[in-house]
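REVIEWER CHECKLIST
Item 1: Sequence provided? yes
Item 2: Single chain? yes
Item 3: Sequence as submitted:
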Amino acid sequence: MKKMEKIRNFCVIAHIDHGKSTLSDRLLEYTSTISERDMQNQALDDMELERERGITIKSHAIQMYYEREGGDTYTLNLIDTPGHVDFSYEVSKSIAACEGALLIVDATQGIQAQTISNLYLAIDNDLEIIPVINKIDMPNAMIDEVMEQILDLTGCELEDILLASGKTGEGIEGILEAIVEKIPAPSGNVDAPLQALIFDSEFNSYRGVIAYFRVFNGRIKKGDKIKFYHTNKEYTADEVGILQMDKVPQNELLAGDVGYVITGIKQSKEIKVGDTITHVNNPSKEPIDGFEDVKPMVFAGIYPMDNDDFEDLRDSLEKLQLNDAALVWEPETSNALGFGFRCGFLGLLHLEIVQERLSREFDQEVLTTVPNVTYYAYTTKKEKLIIHTPNDLPDPTNIDYVEEPYIVAQIISKPEFIGPIMNLCLDKRGELTSQNYLTQDRVELMFDMPLAEIVLDFYDKLKSISKGYASFDYHSKEFRRSDLVKMDILLNGEKVDAFSFLIHREKARGMGLKMVKKLRELLHKQQFKIAIQAAIGQTIVARETLSALRKDVTAKCYGGDITRKRKLLEKQKKGKKRMRQFGSVQVPQKAFIEVLKFDE
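Item 4: Structure as written out by the authors:
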């Protein structure tokens, strides 16, 4: 029987692009988990999109065996985590299933915002932290400075910090030794009732839903009758096993193990990430706690290009949700776009990745509406309404006040960029709450900001004004009362609900002017004039006119009297008048997203 003392469960946390996946590759190589023939860069990133962008989107789990010099073999369960701010939910799942974490910091960039955020998440879960400075082989590595930053942040001893290079493999053995020495073995009672935490799931066309879990207490065998605590559904464990480069079936898994279970579930909603697996006959008294439900920050409508594809899109979203627990959706309809889905995302990168995955993995070409956030509207009758789309907002005469979500934004940058960063944040209605120098050349700025202001282009602007040096992280804080108005876009007097959005009154006119100008560039000319207007209620705040496409009706008229030409032009004028009355404006697909990309 496998001894629990010889198991180590750990995750890897880092900021995006600090070499986490490369370092994981070296650990797999050193422990011979993956053969040289099968080795490729980013071995744990099995999604084409992850390789293309060089980022981890999904968390991954893999088992390695490390043989120490004394002859003892240890089982190491690595759960890889994403580094981008939008995927912090994936990180929280991984952390809940571990006893220790490798904190990876890039020697050329130092500590960044996401590193700190994930570190606090790990400390809150009482994880043993092993600090590692990566990329020490780079010519511009600042090893001493980064060591100081880590000492300030974690309060560890200098000798605790490990130096490594994911590229050359230097320091890998030291990391494996530290994992065995410092990370505690899992605690748990093999004879207690089964308690296993589901930290991930995926959909397989042939076998249904596969759940990945960590056993905290008890044991799970092939053929066991099991149930999920929160959904209260009962199943038979058709197959249980461990996760290596492929799934390896086993007869049973014990407390401390990380593995997978296949039960033949075909419905995605029957499995919930964060749920507890237990036995039907001898259930545990309580589920594993400390796991929070995902809270979407940004909402957008996703519609099929063709309404006939609506059911296909629903199936695709169900399957995608299994593999991406942070995605939430519900059906909705729009006058302009027909039937579609209202989807909740963790941030803009998450939205972009979901759109891209729908296209690549499910062959679904979709149209996405303007991303927005959730507001609370309080009516004069003292009712509280949750506003997901601008069209949910009641008539202004019935509204007492509206509240919008605020976040705490943490920006870490070089001191020379403080001025432009402050201007950007103040322009986005941010309030500076604190400014700390982490080191001589690293300053941390904390702002309270409305979430709606960072949804569109904040991150891109921050990167460009700081020449890529500033790093950004945020978490939600509270809802605050705000003077918000609904802005409608009218084309020849008709509202296009897909362009409607909520905005602060002070910024409404400026935004309206930008929108109508942009739409004038994006719309194709028609046979009639098009009035493009931005309106708040009944008040028009901005207008542009797209002139009519002029067809030369006199081309066929050569020679003869001028009156012949006049007659033709008069006839055309009458026809155009009628067209303006009945003509409906064609809006090209790309306009729905392009309208938000303003050139400053």
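Item 5: Key structural point noted by reviewer: The domain at 486-594 is CATH 3.30.70.2570 (Alpha-Beta Plaits).
Item 6: Recommendation: ____
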